[in-house]
């Protein structure tokens, strides 16, 4: 021990029971631990026993050896966690040996001290644990233990990193543990704030526009001036017939850009208006909106899929002044050769759908086919000048590139009408509902300065979950998804609009723009079905929070189940996805083609354009290997030259995947049982 005595740097004393744990260090490394016992003498407290500790065993040494160690040490430290009596006893003992100059009481980590480690901490480095303070390393270990208790298993990855960062920021372990128990501490859940911003735009006075009196009077009754994005569109040639792509945040008024020019052109005799959306729910709502707002000026019809809307009895009228439809509804009309007359305006809402795997190529093909149809009609009718195209979106990562590809003038307005606070908290599936209930009640009990109660949209990943959550909320709430009939959806929309509902719980149907004036959006799940949300979809959904005419701000809560995935095909966990979405840049909008999509769109282009199919392919956003696609169509016997065969017409009219269609045909020719055909298709889908 003599060599160790020579090289002692620090002696650290920490009270344990009636004795003291002594840690002897050199260069920050522990040399050994010992137990020290003091007794009262006529000269004051003095070492009575000194035992070296090795695991659970102790080796007795002479008490004078401790005194020699203390004299050799450069510094002596007494733990602040030692009792007041203990600190006085140690200080008096070291003073008796004239060692008071190098003796100091310091704050240390109690876990480290109990484990025989000298770990001094400061106000800047300590983490509060109950009424005590511990070091960062021990705080991480305690948090990991709490995460294990809370989640029933080890929490790793982004969730753990986020919680550790929060703990270091607020220096309080208990607050983080309470967060895991569902306490919504806003300082901890808040991720960031998307500030309200307003670009400086000179507003266009409505009475200065030379619109058809029907539209002019209607707008003058509603507004004195246009909103900024509308003013920009007008200033850049909207009313002169220029094609435009308008990119602006939700609730900034971009929809009126399309309506304004479309209705005006109808009334001026320049052709009907098509207003196209990706989802049936959106088409239903826009149809109702057009009827309410413009029904006294124009005839309005709706086209969804290949049939009428049976719930409200409105038969599709191709001669109507305004046709509201889904992409597939209008595309079906083109593929089946329906004549729609002079088309004066085409508004493509949610044009970022072009990037979606399932719908993207069909929208790309629809735009090409519809442009071709309008151009062919203009060649036949000199008095028809063709269509004006207006594309609308709130979320495009490459607006200049996309506008160029669509041959449209970019109108980009980066405004957020009200600020949005984004929050993240962690909970399992059952705990999420309890938190949602608390958030919904808090919002509904709060009234904005505009006099509106806070209402909530909860996004989840299945219809079943929609019903489950809505049943468990204390305040009135309703599920809303494509599986509900038309009347029920309209009832929910009306009740929400009249503030009779505190919340709606929905799947993807609302994300694309169904108009619910919500102040709060809650993500119960970051998946739709078995697919994680994209950055575009996420921003589209959170953009529903906060409306300038109703609310002072929008609030978004992302409820994350750490290490959770909803299907074994999902490579990432929900916590990893959450921070990817919150931090992610908007993705570029371009259409990508696999073989099936290329064959389907080429067949549709041949059906509509015949020998012009190659030109239709070439003008599309995505790159299509035309020769290969035509080869496949010939191989499948879907075309004969540049004409679809009867089989090809059936395939394209019903939007069948060509590969699936060929597999069905092959099975039929081999007299396969219908069950076998279905099984083969399911297996084929699993292989994709």
UniProtKB/TrEMBL annotation:
Pfam families: DEAD, Helicase_C. The keyword Thylakoid does not apply. The keyword Ubl conjugation does not apply. GO terms for molecular function: ATP binding; catalytic activity, acting on DNA; helicase activity; hydrolase activity; nucleic acid binding. Keywords: ATP-binding, Helicase, Hydrolase, Nucleotide-binding. Transmembrane segments: none annotated. Residues 235-414 form the Helicase ATP-binding domain. It comes from the Archaea. InterPro entries: DEAD/DEAH_box_helicase_dom, Hel308_SKI2-like, Helicase_ATP-bd, Helicase_C-like, P-loop_NTPase. Residues 438-590 form the Helicase C-terminal domain. PANTHER family: ATP-DEPENDENT HELICASE MJ1401-RELATED, DNA POLYMERASE THETA, PUTATIVE (AFU_ORTHOLOGUE AFUA_1G05260)-RELATED. This is Helicase. It comes from Natronorubrum texcoconense.
